[in-house]
Amino acid sequence: MTTQYRALRRSRHNRVVAGVCGGIADFLGISAFWPRLFFLIALIPGGVPGLALYVLAWIVMPVA
What CA–CA distances, in Å, run from 5 to 2, 8, 34? Predict the structure, then answer.
């Protein structure tokens, strides 16, 4: 029995801006649509919460 290790990394191929949403989607095994929708909804109340989360993830997540 082997355990496959998946790391949370920004995507090089599934990217629009920095690959954050594509990396989250790859890590969770879902479509990149859902993280992108989450960040879009987080941008609605003034933009700061969603933008701050995205920039923080951009800084913290290494490139794949």
Answer: 9, 10, 22
